[in-house]
Amino acid sequence: GNVGMTGVSYNGTLPNAVATTGVEGLKTIIPIAAISSWYDYYRANGAVIAPGGYQGEDTDNMAEAVLTRENPEVCGQVIKELTAG
User: Fold this and answer.
1) Alpha-carbon distance 35 to 83, whole Å?
2) Secondary structure of the chain: what % helix, strand, coil (to 5)?
3) pLDDT tens per residue across all 85 residues of the chain
4) What Pfam families does the entry give (predicted)?
5) Which helix (H) or strand (E) holds 51?
């Protein structure tokens, strides 16, 4: 079908993420005040903002923070690959 997504802030970031998957049927997104660049959002002038005092663990922390699946274990391997570089 023809599907559109919209949202503000976090809920506006979700359409950005969904659009990157190439999901069939998604025709348009309207993200309002959404994160358009995770790099710029999570870093200041290219430096890592240490979450909880742990320097450099941004990729896995961000992945776990936005993971909302009912069965998060299926994403475990992808998160490992992200953090391995």
Assistant:
1) 21
2) 50, 20, 30
3) 899 999 999 899 999 999 999 999 999 999 999 988 877 776 665 556 555 656 555 666 666 677 777 887 887 787 777 666 5
4) Peptidase_S15
5) none
Q: Judging by beta carbons within 10 Å of its beta carbon (0-12, 13-18, 19+), is residue 61 exposed, middle or buried?
A: middle
CB-based contacts of 19: which residues, under 8 Å, 6+ apart? 5, 26, 29
Hey, is 31 helix, strand or coil?
strand
The tokens describing 53, both together, are 């005092």
CA–CA separation, 22 and 74 (whole Å): 19
What is the C-alpha to C-alpha distance for residues 44 and 62, in angstroms, rounded to an integer?
15
What tokens were used for 46?
A: 């290219």
Q: How many CA atoms lie within 13 A of 8 on its CB side?
A: 0
